[in-house]
């Protein structure tokens, strides 16, 4: 049953965390195809307006990390040493999204710090940026055992937090690294080769797909394609 929300009434006792949680949960339910309740754009915009007007202002990455807590929302929590939330500039114009932490990331609690991370650092330098000037995170924040791909359930459980990170940062561009990131964000089953070399509109942000650095380590001949994608990204960011 749909209930209308009056945008003129701002409940004083609702905190920004609660408002944000309701908005993101409704959006998540909408994304996975649920219906029978009000998850319309109007409702989400109204909740967002409340959130902006609440005493805490715009949701911050710290708010989201705090809300994530010692997350046990999916089975990956059993295998992790620590949650790898993400790092970088909270006002970054560009976010890189990978699939999940690996061995080194799990150990250090930082994203992309193993061999694939070193390659990503070089890719970022090649577009005249630094790790500190972008934001780097993953679809899932806990390491899948033996570095397997996260399941779609695991990705969907973690996705609301990623979406909140993106909303808090408000980047102009997102670069999805690899098929898991691309498929989860774009809700598609297409391969990276079919998705790369173009921009998608993702919640008012321009999203580019390219190969994951770990894939490049196994398939160095694909580095040329990634460089083409990065040149496209660089040109778009400069224009
Ligand atoms: S992967 Fe995400 S949803 Fe699953 S336990 Fe870790 S933080 Fe929670």
Question: Mind explaining what this structure looks like?
Answer:
By secondary structure, the protein is of the alpha/beta class. It is 45% helix and 11% strand. It has 10 helices and 6 strands; from the N terminus they run H-H-H-E-E-H-H-E-H-E-H-H-E-E-H-H. The chain has helices at residues 16-31, 41-53, 61-68, 103-108, 115-126, 152-169, 178-186, 192-195, 213-218, 223-238; strands at 87-88, 94-98, 135-138, 173-177, 199-202, 205-210. Strands 1-3-2-4-6-5 form a 6-stranded mixed sheet. A hairpin with a 2-residue loop joins strand 5 and strand 6 (205-210). Helix 1 (16-31) packs antiparallel against helix 2 (41-53) and helix 1 packs across helix 6. It is globular, with a radius of gyration of 18 Å. The N and C termini lie far apart (46 Å). 37% of the residues are buried. The model is unreliable at 1-13 (pLDDT under 50).
């Amino acid at each position: 049953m749909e209930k209308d929300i009056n945008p003129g009434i701002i409940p004083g006792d609702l905190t920004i965390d609660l408002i944000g949680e309701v908005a993101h949960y409704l959006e998540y339910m909408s994304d996975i195809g649920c219906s029978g309740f009000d998850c319309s754009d109007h409702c989400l915009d109204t909740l967002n307006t409340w959130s902006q007007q609440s005493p805490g202002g715009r949701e911050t990455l710290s708010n989201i990390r705090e809300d994530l807590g010692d997350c046990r929302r999916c089975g990956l929590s059993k295998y992790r040493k620590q949650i790898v939330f993400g790092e970088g500039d909270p006002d970054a114009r560009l976010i890189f999204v990978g699939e999940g932490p690996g061995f080194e990331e799990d150990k250090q609690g930082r994203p992309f710090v193993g061999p694939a991370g070193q390659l990503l650092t070089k890719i970022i330098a090649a577009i005249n940026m630094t790790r500190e000037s972008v934001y780097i995170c993953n679809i899932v924040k806990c390491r899948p055992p033996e570095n397997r791909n996260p399941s779609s359930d695991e990705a969907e459980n973690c996705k609301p937090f990623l979406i909140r990170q993106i909303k808090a940062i408000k980047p102009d561009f997102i670069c999805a690294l690899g098929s898991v990131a691309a498929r989860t964000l774009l809700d598609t089953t297409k391969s990276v080769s079919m998705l790369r070399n173009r921009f998608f509109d993702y919640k008012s942000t321009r999203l580019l797909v390219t190969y994951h650095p770990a894939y490049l380590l196994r398939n160095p001949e694909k580095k040329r394609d990634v460089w083409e994608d990065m040149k496209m990204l660089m040109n778009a960011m400069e224009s």
